[in-house]
Amino acid sequence: MCSLLETAGVERSLLESIKRIKMSYFGHIMRKHGDCLEKEIMQGTVPGARARGRPRKRWMDNMGEWSGLSTEKLLRGTEDRSGWKRIVYNATMHVTLVPRTVEERERERERDYLISLTIEDFSTIPALSK
User: Fold this and answer.
1) How much is the pTM?
2) What's the rounded Cα separation, in Å, for the pair 40 and 50?
3) Helix, strand, coil: what percent of the chain each, to 5?
4) Which of 60, 72, 107, 123 is most buried as measured by Cβ atoms within 10 A of its Cβ?
5) 96-120 as b/e, with b when 16 or more CB fall inside 10 Å?
6) How far apart (Å, rounded) are the C-alpha atoms in residues 88 and 21?
7) What is the rounded distance in angstroms from the CA atom of residue 67 to the CA atom of residue 74?
8) What are the residue ranges spanned by the domains of the chain?
């Protein structure tokens, strides 16, 4: 059986799901009061020297890239839960409609019909009753 999203012709990608979860968690951590290790890690303010070479992708880089907001607007945006949910939704809900051909719909209808048949129904089909 097809899921509701497949029937509607909607395709969700793994990346969109990961973005949604990661952005929701970011908002949760940024709303914490006071200093905590998670906040420091996400904001990239951990003391010490960084390793040589190309800088790694940071949480703040991902959040800014996905939402299109500056660091300051991101941090202010997380203070309001409903506002942050809207930001996360807008950044992650790029649903792609999957066009289906007439042949694909016909095959799907035929498959669903065959699945719905019982054993007695097969005995009435002339080609199968021999």
Assistant:
1) 0.59
2) 14
3) 60, 5, 40
4) 60
5) eeeeeeeeeeeeeeeeeeeeeeeee
6) 9
7) 8
8) 12-97, 100-130
